From TrEMBL:
Organism encoding this protein: Candidatus Raskinella chloraquaticus
Record's protein name: Cupin
Keyword Zinc-finger: no
Alphabetical list of InterPro entries matching this protein: Cupin_2 (IPR013096), GDO-like (IPR047183), RmlC-like_jellyroll (IPR014710), RmlC_Cupin_sf (IPR011051)
Keywords from the named record: Dioxygenase, Oxidoreductase
Gene Ontology terms for molecular function: dioxygenase activity
KW Oxidoreductase (keyword) present: yes
Record domain Cupin type-2: where: 97-164
Superkingdom, taxonomy of origin: Bacteria
Length: 347
């Protein structure tokens, strides 16, 4: 049932002024805006950011602004639905591209929002997370969960660029976002847990759980090489459906971060993929390949290193052209599941 509700204009001006003066407002003119029928009305507009557009401006930032004056040298991606300066690619997802030049370091800090990086370009970069030195190779997913110290460094010879994804919009909205700063960490002299404790899928250290419960974030680095192998094998031997693998906490099977989910996708060349409509918003980062995605009827052409956003409940068709394509989907389904409303709808 849908009835037309009363508008603000229908009310006498002197009544409207009286409400303003005591800091109250009538709900009914805004009721449908905050509670639309059957599905949300997203502010987010789908968009494709070409890496070839971002890269020259980011390298210019390297000339214009020393890292000491930036702390993090980042160009962030602005949702066209929100307009200039909005630190949001979707309602909950912040995405930026960060540049570190050879020899530079970005000092340690920890903050309430959680972050993850996907390495886009360059060799020799590393992030130290709570004392573990994590090498950054192309396509690697590297976590810096809320409350974990992290600093970045670069011992290679060419610029390093990575994508940052954070749940910052959510934390900012909650008035919960802040950081604590510290000098660079001294890394432990050993490979990170993805090379040691969690070297193989399905194996985790045997522990006396009463004395040594597993860490909340046991694995902070997910090397792309292994992810790509896993996707290719799954595509070869799985059914003919969508080839997707979720990044999980190897101790619990839960999403690797509490609010943001990360899903590695392989699109077989020439095959159209039509996922269900999800209540989660999403940002896709193209690791390799080229193709196009039609999102709510509008076509977005993409190639390697580009970033595409999609609002909640978007109808999406992906097509890889020429060769198989690999993407990582960043989404907020883990947050929505925790809040009890994550939903998928058939097309
Ligand atoms: C942050 O801590 C990093 O540590 C990057 O590299 C981007 C954007 C907003 C807030 C914190 C980093 C960020 C950020």
């Amino acid at each position: 049932m849908s009835t037309q509700l009363g508008t603000l204009e229908e009310l006498p001006q002197e009544y409207r002024d009286a409400m303003s003066q005591i800091a109250v407002a009538p709900l009914w003119p805004q009721m449908r805006k905050v509670l639309p029928h059957d599905a949300p009305m997203p502010v987010t507009q789908a968009h494709c950011w070409a890496f070839s557009d971002i890269r020259p401006l980011l390298l210019r930032a390297g000339e214009l602004t020393p890292v000491e004056k930036a702390e993090r040298r980042v160009l962030f991606l602005v949702d066209p639905g929100r307009g200039a300066g909005a630190m949001q690619a979707t309602s909950t997802i912040y995405v930026g591209m960060q540049l570190l030049l050879p020899g530079e370091t970005a000092p340690a800090h920890k903050h309430t929002p959680s972050a993850a990086r996907i390495v886009v370009e360059g060799e020799g970069g590393y992030t130290v997370v709570d004392g573990d030195r994590l090498p950054m190779e192309a396509g690697d997913l590297i976590l810096t969960p809320g409350g974990c110290w992290h600093d970045h460094g670069h011992c290679g010879s060419k610029p390093v660029i990575w994508l940052d994804a954070l749940d910052l919009p959510l934390f900012y909205y909650l008035e919960a976002s802040y950081a604590v700063e510290a000098p660079l960490q001294t890394p432990r002299n050993r490979p990170d847990p993805s090379e040691v404790e969690y070297r193989a899928a399905g194996l985790a250290p045997a522990r006396r759980r009463d004395i040594a419960p597993p860490p909340s974030y046991p694995m902070m680095r997910f090397p792309w090489k292994r992810t790509e192998q896993a996707l290719r094998e799954y595509a070869r031997h799985g059914d003919n459906g969508i080839v997707e693998l979720d990044y999980i906490n190897p101790e619990t099977g839960a999403s690797c971060l509490p609010t943001l989910g990360f899903t590695a996708m392989m699109l077989r060349q020439g095959k159209s993929v039509k996922p269900v409509r999800r209540s989660a918003s999403a940002v896709f980062h193209v690791i390799a390949g080229k193709g196009h995605s039609t999102i709510n009827g509008k076509r977005h052409d993409w190639s390697a290193k580009d970033v595409i956003s999609a609002p909640v409940f978007a109808a999406i068709d992906h097509v890889a052209e020429g060769d198989d394509a690999f993407l990582i989907r960043i989404h907020d389904a883990p947050l929505q599941e925790k809040l009890g409303f994550y939903e998928e709808r058939n097309r």
